[in-house]
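Below is a typical protein record.
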Amino acid sequence: MNSATLIAKAKEVRNDGSIIEIVVWQVPEPLEPCTHSYKYRLYFGANGDCYVRYDNERGKGDHRHVSDKEEPYTFDSLDQLLTDFQRDIENWSNK
């Protein structure tokens, strides 16, 4: 039986109390309807409030949350995912 392999796990607590957490697994088979072999959760928030979150799950696929809004996300690569997440953090922080 093939199992998932953890390829990235990081957590940063910033001076303002906000938290950035990144967890990425390589999975043996895509989580349908995804076509890539990653399971991920990227989180940015504070005080129990989620500001930005990217994740994927079986049956739901790739998506992102910005505040209370959820929308589909088009996964191109891990590098692009991390770039998009960083951009959203910067946009939120500059509000």
